[in-house]
Amino acid sequence: MVDWWRGAVIYQIYPRSFQDSDGDGIGDLRGVWARLGHVADLGADAIWIAPFFPSPQRDFGYDVSDYTGVDPQFGTLDDFDAVVAEAHRLGLRVLIDQVWSHTSDLHPWFVDSRARRGGRDDWFVWADPRPDGGPPNNWLGVFGGGAWTWEPRRRQYYLHHFLPEQPKLNLRYPDALAAVLDAGRFWLDRGVDGFRLDAIDFMAHDPALPDNPARALAEVPSKPFAMQDHLHDMAAPETTDILAAIRGLLDSYPGAVAMAEVGSQTTRATPLARAGHYTHEDGGPMHMAYSLRMMKQPGDAAGLAAFIAEAEAEAGAGWLVWAFSNHDVARVGSRWGGGDLRAARCYMALLLCLRGSVCLYQGEELGLPEAEVPFDRLQDPFGLTYWPEFAGRDGCRTPMPWTAEAPHGGFTVNGNAWLPLPDAHLNLSVDVQAAKGDSMLAASRGLLAWRKTQPALRTGSLTLRAAEAPLLAFERAESGERLLCVFNLDGAPQHLPWNDGVAVPVPGFEAPADGRLSGWGAAVYRL
Fold it and tell me: Measuring CA to CA, how many Å separate 145 from each of 133, 224, 370?
C-alpha cells in the first residue's frame, strides 16, 4: 500500500471554534460535518479533529473523562459517524486526538485509583511524601505550580504535568496501557484513519523520581517551567516502548497512522532528535511527528535556515510534519508576518515546499492574525495564570469566520460565541475571500493543488542553498527532478544571485522580474 501520509496536507479542526450548529455558541460535530466541503475545496488530504470526548473542560477537552464517548456539547456518536462518512466521501482521511499521557481527575479510572479499588491502584503515578511532608521532588507543572498534588484519601501525592485536574496515567503499568489501546481500537473500528497523539513527551518519566537540575538563565522567566532542565520528568527511554505498543495496534488496521506531538523542551535529546528517533525509517514506532519547537522560534531567513538544517541533521531519517500554527501557539500571521497578508502568503508557500508532511490550522489558509482577547473574556487556564505576561492560547482559538456578518461571522446564529470574534477576522472571512481571485484563500487553494503536481515537493530530498538574508533557498529533488525554491522573507524586493533553471509558476505570486524577487515573494525554478 502506498503511504498516503507521506507529503500529505493535514487540516487541523478545533471543533469548539469551527462551526456551531445548534446556537449555543460552541462549535460541534454537526458543524464540522457541515463545513467539510471547505476543507475538501482547499485541497487537504486529511483532517485532524481536536478532542470532542466527554470532559469537564478544565483544559477544553484535553482532560478526558471518557475515551469512548462524545461530550454532549459536541453532539453524539452518530454525529461523529456522520463526520467520518462525509469526510471519506469527500476523499479526506480522518485523524482524531488521543490524549493518553493523562486523564481528567473525574475519569472513573482515576476515581478508582484514588480509592485503591477495581485493581486500578497503579494506573496513575502515586508517590509517598518526603519525610517533611513535601512532594517527592521538585518537578514543575507546565501550567504553573508544582507537578504534584496531595491526595488525603491515599496519603500520597499524584503526578500531573499540566493542571491538578489532569492526573498522569502510568502507562508502564500493562493494564493501563491495554485500556488506552482498547479505547483506540474503539475509534479505529468506527472508521478513523489514525491518531494525533498528544504530549508524548509526558508518557514516561524516570521512575526513580530524581530532582530536575536548575537551568542557567540570564533572567527569571514568566513561566517557572523554563527554570529547570527537564532531564527526568519527560521523554524517558520507555516512551519508545509505549509508542511501539500503539504502533502494534495501528498496524492491524491497514492505512492507519499515528502523528506524534513532540514538545519544545530539550531533555536527553533535542525535540527534533526525538522526533527523528520516533519516526526513523528503520524501526521508529511512529509514522510522523511534529515539534512545538517549529512554532516557538523566530521566522527570519537566517533562523529558519538554521532550523531547517537542524531538522535535516537530527530528524533526516525520520518523517517530520511541518506546522507553523496550531491551537497551542499564536497564529503565524502575527507571530512571523506582523499581520501582513503578503507575509502570510509567503509563509504558506514556504510551508508547502518543505520536506515532510504539512499540518494547517483552521484559519491559516485565510491569513488570520492572532486575536486580542480581553482579560474578562479569557477562558484558557494557561493564560489566566500568567496574564498579562502571557495571554494564553485563546487568541488562536477564536471562532472561524465564515461570513463578514457581525458579530459572529457565520460561526453561530442564535448564541454568543464562547470567544469573541474580532472585526479584523470578519474582513478575512471565507465568503469574502472566496469572491476574490487574488485573496489569501485563493492562493492557499492554488498552492495546495500545485503541490500535488510536484512529486519533488511531496516526497523529495531537501538541500539548503547558501543565500544571504532575507532570502531563504533550498533544492528539492525526486527521481531526477530538481527544484530550486526561493523565498524573500522581507517586504522589500531582493536581487536574486542565481540565473539557473526554468521558472515554474507559483500560484499567488508574480514571477521575478529583472532578476529581482518582490517583497514577500516566492519563486521556484526547475533545474
Answer: 17, 8, 27
Are residues 468 and 379 located together in one domain of the fold? no
Domain final position from 151, 170, 189 = 170
The C-alpha atoms of residue 315 and residue 272 are separated, in whole angstroms, by 6
pLDDT tens, residue by residue, 269-319: 999 999 999 999 998 999 999 999 999 999 999 999 999 999 999 998 999
For cell 453561530, what's the residue? 412
CATH of the domain at 497: 2.60.40.1180
For the entire predicted model, the pTM comes to 0.97
> Each residue of 214-240: b (16+ CB within 10 Å) or e?
eeeeeeeeebebeebebbbbbbbeebb
Q: Are residues 211 and 160 in the same domain?
A: no
> Counting beta carbons within 10 angstroms of the beta carbon of residue 248, is it exposed (0 to 12), middle (13 to 18) or buried (19 or more)?
exposed
| Helix (H) / strand (E) containing 294 | none
Residue 241's pLDDT is what?
97
Catalytic (active-site) positions:
198, 261
160: domain CATH number is 3.90.400.10
Query: Which parts of the chain sit beneath pLDDT 70?
Result: 1-2
